[in-house]
Design a protein that fits this description.
single chain; alpha/beta; five-stranded parallel β-sheet; 26% strand
Length: 465
């Protein structure tokens, strides 16, 4: 089978490699940088900055551990170069992987549909045409900036901020979602005076996490202004001023800073695809409409990842969709459950989640039981002075299934996979509770949380019941 994949982000390039492994003839087309948004201007560079912010914060707090450090400072050029070096290394790594498959052709150029079976690609050598049995659109997302005054100097998107070599003295972040919170966490640790403006903090999270995030994430350089919407950005001398309105009220408030980051989400990227020529329907949010099989309104064209209208915008979800899709094309029956998708927000400390929130279970009328265990009660977390946060597990009332897990705290990105593994393999509370957990480890947070269901948590008064 011949498969064309438009877009070499995580969804596209992983689908291309898997399709090639299965013996298909694959054409992978990319107009920009290999690795897409995640690798070049998203997940990877921000995680590099997170690590630097953690190290810098650790130096600032080192004296409480008996370590005295004098004269430390941030080197802006080295930080920028480190970020660039990491991205370049990983891009080259992906392109090296392509070289291992003779049936995978990587084409650099701008793709658009000529019709439902033909893709035209504008390359440096001219226009080329490709036809295929199946076509997958994996063009990802693009920055969103719809605030009045958003075109003023020093108003940044996340892409702009990652290209900025200096560390701002002050910054307003418009948006309390994943992007806004991650950058606020990073730059406030760098010493930037950060004000985050929005309605609810991380509205995708479980309600209990939302309520605690302000206190868990807040530091001397970070403050949250909630229940407000940004109306306009205007010049304020050498700074910028953000004019906001309180939700449900007419009051206008003003906040001033050197830079403004607009982090109100990302839009599906269908620019220049000429979807009309292929008969591809677009949805209310501007992305591509697909059915439960990820098929568009054109029979042989599919879409995955951020370009899908209303889809969960996660790199690993796009990859899972793409791999499942090409496996189906090749006659396999993929086992991956696309409804169980762990998610991590790399704030300091992290937030992680998988499955249903407590609010969703209540809305759906599902009977459930819950447990919660605090980081402050875990010996490893206490010894490392990482006591902020908690783990919350939601289980069916008979304790036979894990329905959701929500964590804010250190190493949340690791812990969340205990729950994801259990959910994918129908492991009950008893199955999780009966195993031995190494001591002293952060993993014991999960142990105590499942032990609470059975009233046998050694580290909880009364066992948790």
């Amino acid at each position: 089978m011949k498969i064309i994949i438009i877009g070499a982000g995580p969804g596209g390039y992983e689908a291309a490699i898997r399709a090639a492994q299965l013996g298909n003839e694959v054409v992978l087309i990319e107009k920009g940088q290999t690795g897409g948004t995640c690798l070049n201007i998203g997940c990877i560079p921000t995680k590099t900055l997170v690590k630097i912010a953690e190290l810098y914060g650790g130096i600032q707090e080192a004296e409480k551990f008996g370590i005295k450090v004098d004269g430390y400072s941030l080197d802006e050029e080295t930080i920028y170069n480190r970020k660039r070096e990491v991205v370049d290394h990983l891009v080259k790594g992906i392109e090296f992987l392509f070289s291992g498959y003779k049936n995978l052709e990587y084409v650099r150029g701008f793709a658009s549909f000529k019709d439902a079976k033909t893709v035209e690609v504008k390359t440096e050598d001219g226009v080329k045409e490709f036809t295929a049995d199946k076509i997958i659109v994996a063009t990802g997302s693009k920055d969103q900036n719809r605030v009045k005054g958003g075109d003023l100097p020093n108003v940044l998107t996340s892409t702009d901020l990652l290209a900025l070599k200096e560390i701002p003295k002050s910054m307003i972040v418009i948006g309390t979602g994943v992007i806004g919170l991650e950058f606020a966490s990073i730059y406030s640790r760098f010493g930037t005076d950060v004000t985050v403006i929005g309605n609810n903090i991380l509205k995708i999270a479980d309600g209990e996490i939302q309520k605690r995030l302000n206190s868990v994430l807040k530091n001397d350089n970070l403050k949250f202004v909630t229940k407000q919407h940004a109306k306009e950005i205007v010049k304020d001398g050498d700074n910028l001023k953000v004019i906001t309105q309180k939700v449900g009220k007419e009051d206008l408030l003003e906040y001033s800073a050197e830079y403004v980051l607009v982090a109100m989400g990302r839009d599906s990227n269908v620019d220049g695809l000429n979807t009309e020529a292929a008969g591809i329907e677009l949805g209310r949010k501007g992305g591509i409409v697909v059915d439960s099989e990820l098929k568009t309104s054109a029979d042989n064209i599919y879409a995955i990842g951020d370009v899908v209208d209303g889809n969960t915008q996660l790199a690993h979800f796009a990859s899972a969709q793409g791999i499942s899709l090409v496996e189906k094309f090749s006659g396999l029956e993929p086992k991956t459950d696309l409804n169980i998708v762990p998610s991590v927000v790399f704030t300091l400390p992290e937030v992680a989640m998988v499955g249903k929130t407590e609010e969703q279970l209540k809305e759906e009328g599902v009977e459930y039981d819950k447990s919660k265990f605090l980081y402050a009660s875990n010996s490893k977390a206490y010894s490392a002075d990482e006591t902020a946060g908690f783990i919350k597990i939601l289980a069916s009332s008979d304790h036979k299934k894990i329905l959701g897990c929500h964590i804010v705290g250190a190493a949340a990105d690791y812990l969340i996979h205990f729950a994801a593994i259990a959910m994918n393999n129908d492991i009950s509370v008893e199955g999780l509770s009966s195993m031995i957990y190494a001591h002293p480890t952060i993993s014991e947070l999960f142990m105590d949380a499942v032990h609470i269901f059975e009233g046998k948590s050694i580290n909880t008064p009364g066992g948790g019941k």
